[in-house]
Amino acid sequence: MNTPAFLLAAAALFWGAQTGNWLVAAACAALLEAPRYAAGRWQLESAQFNRVADFCTVLLAALALYFYFSFGNPRAITLLFQWMPVIVLPLALAQAWSTARALDLSVLFWSLRRNPMRRAVRLNLGYPMYVLWLLAASAANRQGAAFYAGLVLLCAWPLLLARPRSYALPLTAGMLLAAAAAGYGGQLGLHQLQQWLEAAAPEWLAGGGARTNPYRNTTDIGSIGELKLSQRILLRVVADPALKPPILLHRASYDDYVGGTWVARNARFEQLAPFGTASVWKLKDAPGALRQIVVYDDSDGNPLLSLPLNTARIAGLAASEMKMNPLGAVQVEHKPGYFSYRALVGKSGSAYGPPTARDLVVPRSETAAVSEIADDLGLAALPPERALSALKHYFAERYSYSTWQRKAASGRTPLAEFLLATHAGHCEYFASATTLLLRAAGIPARYATGFSVQEWSALDQAYVVRERHAHAWVRAWIGGAWRDVDTTPPTWFQAEAAQAPSWSPLADLWSWARFRLAAWSAQAGERGWSAALIWLALPLFAWLAWRTLSGRRADTTAGRSAAPSRSTWPGEDSEFYLIERRLAELGHARRNAETVTEWLARIATHTGLDVEDLRRAAQLHYRYRFDPDGLPAAQREALRTQALNWLARHAATAAA
Amino acid sequence: MWRLSYRIFRAVSGLWYWMTRRFTGAGFLALGTLVTAGALGIDTNQTLAYQIFTFLFALLAAAMLAALLLRPQFRIVRTLPRMITAGQSFDYRVSVKNLGTRPADGLALLEELSDPRPAYAEFRSALRFPSYRGWWRLALRNQVAHIDETVLPLLAPQAEAEVRVRGLAYRRGTLQLAGASVARADPLGLVRGLARSSLPDKLVVLPRRYSLPRLALPGARRYQHGGVTLASSVGESEEFMSLRDYRPGDPLQRVHWKSYARSGKPVVKEYQDEFFERHALVLDTFTDRDSAVFEEAVSLAASFACALDTQESLLDLMFVGTQSYCYTAGRGQMQAESLLEILAGVRASAGRDFLRLQHSVLARRTALSACILVLLAWDEARQGLVRALQRSGLPLLVLVVSERDIAAAPAWLRVLRPGKIQEGLARL
Predict the structure, then answer these.
(1) Yes or no, beta carbons of A172 and B188 under 8 Å apart
(2) How far is CA A297 from CA A57, A206, A327, A337, B311, in A?
(3) How many angstroms away from the CA of A139 is the closest CA of chain B?
(4) Full strand arrangement of the beta sheet holding B145-147
(5) Which of B51, B55, B154 sits opposite A179 (nearest CB)?
(6) Which value, to the nearest 10 degrees, does the dihedral of the CA atoms of residues A551, A552, A558, A564 take?
(7) How many CB atoms lie within 10 A of CB A430?
């Protein structure tokens, strides 16, 4: 390896610190640095390197498939990057422990094995490995300044060692510091830019129904044009036959409406204690029989559970912790990728708090339109049940579903335009309007988001929930309990389904295959098969090592003794060689086939340096080197003192 | 689509060339990592790769700025050989002087060769489908030679260093050197600042040559019109033999005035007539494009041009380019190397009539002792030429370079395969 000593080890340990895989990192570091101290090497030909590279490729492909099926994208990509240096390690070790100084590029590229380049390009894997460790460490995504600090130190190390020496050290160090500071500011800015973009972009763009933010929900109310949602299957639901579709699976509720965005105020998450065994969590007491819904969740990076109303318990979920907020959102921490759980549903009675004063507030901007409708319907005078049915009737009779919106008339909010003019919109309009109208009628209400479960899949033998099944409705407090109220015309489901592209059955098939494999792999993990697979892979690895290395041990000790020992010649220890080296360091190297006298003359003409004493020393040096009688002791001493004096004088010049 | 892909390929290969000159190895690694980290860190919530991206971006920006500001000053002097040979490595000396006031290291010498990127017409005609691979192949084909980057030692102010620059000639032709640059790495060692000197120069790359077996070309000496004038000297210094009486028609310059004055009747000087062997080396250039077959034919002609003894005989090199050419070497005419230089520049002449070559050869028929024909095919036109020469009784050596077997080839016809020319020549 061409890296400075211990740079690779440091990079590997840095990776270990970031990913938490200390043992693996320490083993890799030791294996990569040990060749500096061990004499033994293997004599590997390009065929053996090709075999090791092919093994790494197969390993890469196998792991890529495993990660993809277990965790899905983009998690699979980051995981693959995180393990990349370990995947490539066999090849790096093959180079480090072999007599080859670098690998031909064809080892890495199949196409070059068939069509070699005009001039062979050789690559030492030292620095590429070092870069891979850094990239892999970044994929661990451990937030905090430690990563950046480590990165700067690990980059500064080789840069300072290999810097051109003609520049002053403070210049290089200053540039490094400036770049580190600028880079730090840049990364903060970049991260904030993404946060801002995510907040400003419509929900469906920033991850859509797959990821739900429990604190705020930016609706598409006020967006002009066609609303498009994806076909991707996020959940598979197996429900108790007693539960009839459509089933509403709730993810988060919000209590404050601010210009097109629903916000959850004071929605602090509180820790829930596991109930009995670690995989069961209790949300509330539920007397009587419980009905079961099994949810298989495939929405990446989403911490919120999709639960039906009146969920009493959650079982079968291997989560490290579970939290719930006063608005009924349940958040868990679990391993990334696919997971499943059973929601046990009770009869009635909420698991979370009663309404607050905020659940009755109608924002000032919407008051005019909302009170106009509420007054028309006489909602304030009706008892809650009657008011609710009047509202349902009103929306069913007069409103229609549409994913298309035109521009609102000036001076009106988009919601007022919906209520007073267009009478057409998507679920977010219906849910928001109903929430505010119920509030105007004195009924506490919240805006709820989640999914509507209606589509039965024969292939999965379960209900499938797609991204476009993301839905919004109202949670109203009636009769001392929360109740789901959905005023969106039921035709919305068919209208959305009609937009499905023709290739969606194929995509569904692919999703089904992925789901089956992921379920199988999760099962295998539970039963300890994954560990067994690793134990099976180890003999395979050993076999490859044996095939590659057997009989190829390079006889380095024999090579060393067989190498012709450097012959000695008279005058070899002349101090004049030190002068020659010093002059070369100062930029006046002697050319090939240039005699010492010519060389000194050239230096004198070019630099104006006084070379008279050097000439005298050179004469003595020549006699010492070539005079058959050798140099008398006194003159030998004179050569030494002259040379050392000159060196002492010119060391000072060089430093100055 | 062709025009667009041509522009894109041109821009991409131009960018790549720029990068190879501007970035050091460490800089390339940093740039590659920057791109990878940019792709991996696109979502700042998923990985921290965006931190690597911003840091490397700042590093490279600082390095670029420093390379721009700390541009070095150097004087470069090149000492080129007269000619080099295709397929062989070569080297030459370059001396570099630091004109700055500070010592400089991290230096490399970069030669600037002529742009090998194909022109649009060539790109359009040579490829069936616009692919980058095809583009690359064309650019490689146009590349005459490669010259390595040469590392320079540390140079004190006003100090001069001499280095040996190594290269490899890929094909015959003229290697155009536009300039040379001294690249100096920035304080971080990532990006290089270039001090360019315009040093236009040319280097002739001779065709590669094969060793020929001992050739005893048949044929007799022939009277060479002009005698030794043709062979050993220029102007009027001719080989004097005797004086004789004037015969009507003798040129006035040949009158020997002193004898005329002494004898009272016109006397003229007579010169010796010369008899030499004179061989013709005929190269067939009638092919559509510069193919491997054509290159082998040129190499073959070059091998003959070197191997034939031009001390005692003359050699006419004949081929058709934009017109019919005939160059003569030997006996005080051109040197064999000059013929090689001519062969270095021979191009295939597409779309011309083979008869032009036939006329040109037959016109010189009477002066020739023997003829070597290097042909690219064995078709009716070429057979016609051979028959015409055979009818005139001229001894012939006919070589055909062909990738395929020639059906019903006469026994005297030598068929050589590209890539196996040396083996074929050994059987001559």
Answers:
(1) yes
(2) 31, 19, 21, 9, 93
(3) 5
(4) B74-79, B89-98, B160-169, B145-147
(5) B55
(6) 150
(7) 23
pTM of the model: 0.69
A167 — contact with chain B (CB < 8 Å)? yes
Q: Which of residues 597-616 of A touch B (CB under 8 A)?
A: 602-603, 606-607
Q: Per the structure block, which two tokens stand in for A10?
A: 């440091």
Cα B64 to Cα B187: distance, rounded to the nearest angstrom: 10
Could you say which of A75, A77, A186 has the minimum Cβ distance to residue B58? A186
B28 to chain A, minimum CA–CA distance in Å?
A: 11
What whole-number distance in Å separates Cα of residue A607 and Cα of residue A602? 8
CA geometry: angle at A302 spanning A297 and A304, to 5°?
85
The encoded tokens of residue B405 equal: 């077997």
Neighbours of A525 (CB within 10 A): 14
User: Mind giving me the DSSP string for A527-595?
Assistant: TTHHHHHHHHHHHHHHHHHHHHHTT-EE-HHHHHHHSPPPPP-TTTT-THHHHHHHHHHTT-PPPTT--
Q: Where are the beta strands (DSSP E) in A244-336?
A: 247-254, 256-258, 261-263, 270-272, 280-282, 291-297, 311-315, 319-324, 330-334
CA B279/CA B305 separation, integer angstroms: 10
Whether chain B has a CB inside 8 Å of the CB on A131: the answer is yes
| Measured CA angle at B375 (ends B371, B378), to 5 deg | 115
Q: Which of B111, B146, B120, B161 is nearest to B5 (CA)?
A: B120
| Beta carbons of B162 and A591 less than 8 Å apart | yes
Q: What is the DSSP letter of B352?
A: -
Alpha helices, DSSP H only, in A441-489? none
Cα–Cα distance between A274 and A294 in angstroms, integer? Answer: 19
**Dist. CA B428–CA B420, nearest whole Å:** 13
A431 phi/psi in degrees, rounded to 5: -65, -45
Query: Who contacts A126 (Cβ-Cβ below 8 Å, separation ≥6)?
Result: A1, A2, A3, A8
Q: What ipTM was predicted for this assembly?
A: 0.75
The span from the CA of B150 to the CA of B108, in Å, is 5
- A307: amino acid identity, one letter: L
Q: Which residues pair with B324 in a beta bridge?
A: B320
Q: How far is CA A592 from CA A18, A596, A606, A609, B276, in A?
A: 52, 11, 18, 21, 49
DSSP state of B334: B
Q: Is the peptide bond before A74 cis (omega within 30 degrees of 0)?
A: yes
User: Would you state the structure tokens that stand for residue A428, as one six-digit string?
Assistant: 């977010």
What whole-number distance in Å separates Cα of residue B337 and Cα of residue A649? 56
Q: Which of B144, B147, B163, B138 is nearest to B204 (CA)?
A: B144
Task: Please check whether residue A134 is in contact with residue A11, taking contact to mean a CB–CB distance below 8 angstroms.
Answer: yes
- Rounded-to-integer distance, Cα B38 and Cα B378, Å: 60
Query: In whole angstroms, how large is the CA radius of gyration of chain A?
Result: 37
CA distance A72 to B5: 36
pLDDT mean for each 10 residues of chain A (656 residues): 89 92 91 87 84 89 84 81 92 89 86 81 90 92 88 93 88 93 92 81 50 78 68 87 86 87 84 73 77 82 82 81 86 77 80 83 89 87 88 90 75 85 88 92 91 88 88 89 88 81 85 83 70 74 77 54 55 85 84 84 81 88 85 88 86 51
B66: chain A residues, CB-CB within 8 Å: 175
* Smallest Cα distance from B192 to chain A, Å: 11
Contact between B360 and B326 under an 8 Å Cβ cutoff? The reply is: yes
Residue B148 and residue B191 in contact, taking contact as beta carbons nearer than 8 Å: no
Q: What is the rounded end-to-end Cα distance, in angstroms, of chain A?
A: 36
